[in-house]
Amino acid sequence: MKQRCAVLGIGQTHHAAKRGDLSMSGLVREAALRALDDAGMTFDEIDAVVMGKAPDFFEGVMTPELYLADALGAAGKPVFRVHTAGSVGGSTAIFATHLVTSGIHKRVLTLAWEKQSESNAMWALSPKYPFSPPTTAGAGGYFAPFVRAYIEFTGAPEHIGWQVAYKDRIHALKNPYAHLQMPEITIDMVKNSPVLWDPIRYLETCPSSDGAGAMILVSEDVAEASGKKVAWVHGTANRTEAILYPRRNQVLPQAGSDCAKALYKEAGITDPKREIDTAEIYVPFAWFEPMWLENIGLADANDGWKMVDSGDTMLGGRQPINPSGGVLSSNPIGASGMLRFLEAAHQVRGTAGEHQVEGAKKALGHAYGGGSQYFAMWIVGAEKP
Amino acid sequence: MQQPIDGVLEAPYVMEYTYRRSLGPVMSAFFTALRDGRLLGARTASGKLVVPPLEWDPETGAAIAGLEPAAEEGVVTAATWVAAPEPRHLLQEPFAYALIQLDGASTAMLHAVACASLEACPVGTRVKLVWSESRTGSLRDIRCFEPVN
Prior knowledge:
Number of strands of chain B: 8
Strand order of the largest sheet of chain B: 6-5-4-7-8
Largest sheet of chain A: 9 strands, mixed
Distance between the termini of chain A: 14 Å
Number of helices of chain B: 1
Oligomer: heterodimer
Largest sheet of chain B: 5 strands, antiparallel
Distance between the termini of chain B: 50 Å
Radius of gyration of chain B: 20 Å
Strand content of chain A: 15-25%
Number of strands of chain A: 11
């Protein structure tokens, strides 16, 4: 029989282009201590630590989970590293959840991070292989054709991308931890920003951030004994597919829709458009909001852009998407999935602060990575599953 | 050595990137002090002195209580011999790599000991720190250790 699991503590760093004030271990420590403080716990009470981040050569530290163990009070405890490209923050939280739902541990610290100022993701994603011309494309160049394909298939107007970019930066102004704080943002600014990779404009892309996110996941008895408001995990799902195979739909990958279906089944959700009050989804380029809305069934086929256009996805709208400002406002790569998951937990605990979706009872956290290959999702609720 | 096979291609594959490091408050203070010719250790809440310092107590994960000057003399706790130093080594004469526990420290640090042979540097040998004349904020600011007669 599966045990229940709850989010008791949530913490994150103040994300920024460069956290030069902190070492890598100082960065993860800042998030971990905030999560412990939120849970009313100390390192001594933690049974196991589960860490995620992007590939080691982003920062050039091999097996950083060992290097950072002291900073996380993990000496003498089980320490695990999860590795699923950009979706890793989500997969890490899921792995940690399973340590609780399986009854193995009662109090697990899960944490994901990236220190992009000490790294170069563009370099790490586009190595120059012998006998091949360098693509020097990075993530934006890789994903731009799929955005173009989405626009062609659905007939979505160009302003949808501007609108998502604008909305998430407006949301970020309500989140003190968000990296980008752009009170001056307008739709025209997005529209007039340069095209980096057709059709993606500069302000339709995520920043490069230093940051970490952490959660304390606990068993039902620990959650109840705490007397605190928790977020209950209602379901988790991971799916992965190869980057290239014949007839692969790279715009709406099967792994993404399969993952969502498995998630809704586990969480007992039959009508995600109505039962989910808000979602934090991994949108590093603005157009991925309508694409993922369709991929995970929050919008019908070809209608994702209409949901954006109607204003449904703004705070105050029917189903706010990324009320925290999302990846478009903070992107510490490895941590970005964890931030989606912990922001969903904030929403159902009612602790999201200024970006709280009023009365949110069920929220979805979503992360993807690689060439739209790795998917990780969870649903958390205010009530026990 | 394996001979190339006709018609089978190979090419070097070099991956290189110059990473940056932000040291944080503890290690920044440590390296700044080295530049100024001072060696610091980290005092833990349980009273141990960790040299070189760590940001967090390795036993408990607690923040360190503070940094304080470490002794510049100590004893060798283990050593090995470098018979043929390469240009990148700290010393160009044959030398010992040793773990050195400074007086009052709870941990040992790795550094070079300038001595005539490994036999001249047995466990328990008392050594003292020799500073480099030009210092930049690196472990090379310590030129080496040498036996105390």
